[in-house]
C-alpha cells in the first residue's frame, strides 16, 4: 500500500446560512489528485443538498459535522442534520456518513469491508442485538438485520453502525449507534479492506 497510507486531507468549514438554514459542512483540500478531491466535495455537497428545505422556509434545517477518521489514506466523516417544520413540537435528526479512499476516491459501502460469503451480517446482527438489549433501547418494530449498504463510519479502532432516528427506535432514543471493535471482526475482513490499514503498526 506504500505511500498511499500516509495520505490525509485538509478539512475546513463551509457554511450555508439563510433565513431557514444554518449548516456547517466540510470542505476537503490538500489532495494531490484534484479530480478525487472534487469528487469527494461534490459527494458531500450532494448529501447537504438532499436535506435543504424545499418548502419556502416552512422547515428549518441545521447541520454540523465530525471527522471520525483522517489517516492512512482514509477519510470517514459524519454529517448531522436537524430539520423542524414551522410550529412543530419536535424535529427530526438525520445522520449521514461518507467513508472514502483519499487516493482513489472509492466510496466504501459496508459490504466492501468484508469477505464475500463471510456471513458478516449475521455476526454484526448478533452484536447489534446484544447492544440493543444492553442499551435498553425501545424498538418500534422488530430489528430484522442490517443490509449490505447499512449506514456506518470508521474510527481508529472501531466500526460504528447506526440507524436513523425512528427507523427502529423511539424518538427519545435519538440515532442509535453500535460500536464494534475491529478485533471482533478482523477474521471477516477482505484482503483489501480499508480497516486492515488501520490495524497495521
Automatic annotation (TrEMBL):
Q: Which domain of life is it from?
A: Bacteria
* Occurrences of domain DUF3298 (ranges): 111-183
Q: Which Gene3D superfamilies match?
A: Fervidobacterium nodosum Rt17-B1 like, Heat-shock cognate protein, ATPase
Q: Name one Pfam family in it.
A: DUF3298
Q: Which InterPro entries match?
A: DUF3298, PdaC/RsiV-like_sf
- The entry's protein name is DUF3298 domain-containing protein
Amino acid at each position: 500500500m506504500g505511500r498511499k497510507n500516509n495520505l490525509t486531507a485538509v478539512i475546513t468549514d463551509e457554511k450555508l446560512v439563510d433565513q431557514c438554514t444554518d449548516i456547517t459542512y466540510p470542505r476537503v483540500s490538500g489532495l494531490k489528485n484534484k479530480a478525487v478531491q472534487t469528487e469527494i466535495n461534490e459527494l458531500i455537497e450532494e448529501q447537504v443538498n438532499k436535506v435543504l428545505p424545499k418548502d419556502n422556509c416552512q422547515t428549518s434545517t441545521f447541520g454540523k459535522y465530525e471527522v471520525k477518521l483522517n489517516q492512512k489514506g482514509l477519510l470517514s466523516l459524519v454529517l448531522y442534520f436537524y430539520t423542524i417544520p414551522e410550529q412543530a413540537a419536535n424535529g427530526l435528526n438525520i445522520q449521514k456518513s461518507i467513508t472514502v479512499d483519499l487516493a482513489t476516491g472509492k466510496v466504501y459501502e459496508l459490504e466492501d469491508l468484508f469477505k464475500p460469503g463471510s456471513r458478516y451480517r449475521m455476526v454484526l446482527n448478533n452484536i447489534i442485538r446484544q447492544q440493543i438489549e444492553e442499551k435498553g433501547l425501545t424498538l418500534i418494530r422488530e430489528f430484522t438485520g442490517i443490509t449490505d449498504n447499512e449506514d456506518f463510519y470508521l474510527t481508529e479502532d472501531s466500526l460504528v453502525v447506526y440507524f436513523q432516528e425512528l427507523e427502529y427506535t423511539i424518538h427519545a432514543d435519538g440515532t442509535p449507534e453500535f460500536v464494534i471493535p475491529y478485533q471482533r471482526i478482523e477474521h471477516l475482513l477482505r484482503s483489501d479492506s480499508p480497516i486492515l490499514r488501520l490495524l497495521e503498526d
